[in-house]
Write a structure and sequence with these properties.
Blueprint (H helix, E strand, L loop, with lengths): L7 E4 L19 E4 L4 E4 L3 E7 L7 E2 L12 E6 L3 E5 L18 E4 L2 E10 L2 E9 L24 H10 L1 H4 L10 H10 L8 H15 L19 H16 L9 H4 L1
Parallel strand pairs: 4-5
Antiparallel strand pairs: 1-3, 2-3, 2-10, 4-6, 6-7, 7-8, 9-10
Helix pairs in contact: 1-3, 3-4
């Protein structure tokens, strides 16, 4: 099936998940949205596509049967070329790698697959799948293709050692982890056999240098530099952002905890 320019269509129940790709041939920039029971496809033109719990009032129903989801939870807006998502509901929208999208806020959607999650309790959530056709990373892949390498940041052995100590709670998979304090990192490194002597200030300087280096260049990490001399908890948030980025790309991994025992 093919969707032509300046057209739209309803995606019936049983449409394959959008993680598998577009369910039909369509022009670049076409948006596919799939909710609880069905979905919608729209080629790029000035349009506002509605989603939420108000079945019969929205194009894509999401959160059916859950009164915590707004009847109009959000809008997918096209200006004729690009698409944005705006949250009009009471609850935030979550998407991996993005800040929470709060009520009244909107953000540009990039080509490719974007999952939007509405969490209504610790054990209940609702998914809106979005796919915009366009040039995205990926290429040809088969079930037997070797796993592609993730981008790993260039850090020396001392950098890794300090970061493992800083991120130990994350690597141990504790609930709601936070970065260790400078003193905690220094104490951990000083109690490891064969280690050099560390002070909290030395740890802080080393991590600050790492953040400055990784905030620029290839795959620069956002949100890891402070604009003033503020310290905790702002500095702690910067370290949290640094750790999350290094975990996401595989630069830090749980097996590196053994380094603290081998210093």
């Amino acid at each position: 099936m093919e969707l032509h320019a300046h057209k739209s269509c309803h995606l019936p129940s049983g449409t394959p998940r959008l993680t598998l790709g577009a369910p039909m041939t369509a022009p670049l920039g076409t948006l596919f949205a799939l909710g609880d029971t069905d979905g919608y496809a729209m080629t790029p033109r000035s349009f506002k596509l509605l989603f939420g719990r108000g079945e019969g009032e929205v194009h894509v129903p999401v959160g059916l049967g859950d009164q915590k989801v707004s009847r109009l939870q959000g809008e997918l807006i096209c200006d004729g070329q690009s698409w944005r998502v705006r949250n009009t509901g009471r609850l935030p929208l979550h998407s991996p790698g993005r800040p929470m999208l709060l009520r009244g806020h909107d953000v540009l959607l990039q080509p490719g697959y974007t999952p939007l999650v509405i969490s209504t309790s610790p054990t209940r959530a609702h998914l809106l799948e979005i796919l915009i056709t366009g040039a995205v990373d990926g290429g040809d892949c088969t079930p037997t293709s070797p796993t592609a390498e993730s981008f790993v940041y260039d850090l020396d052995e001392t950098d890794i050692l300090v970061l493992v100590a800083l991120a130990q709670r994350y690597l141990l998979q504790e609930r709601n982890p936070q970065p260790a304090t400078w003193k905690q990192v220094a104490d951990l490194l000083n109690h490891a056999p064969g280690g050099r002597e560390w002070t909290p200030k030395a740890v802080e300087c080393r991590v600050s240098l790492i953040r400055r280096r990784l905030a620029t260049g290839t795959n620069a990490i956002r949100g890891i530099l402070r604009d003033d001399e503020a310290s905790e908890p702002i500095g702690n948030s910067l370290n949290h952002n640094l750790i999350q980025a290094l975990l996401a790309g595989g630069t830090l991994s749980p097996e590196q905890l053994r380094l603290l025992e081998e210093v």
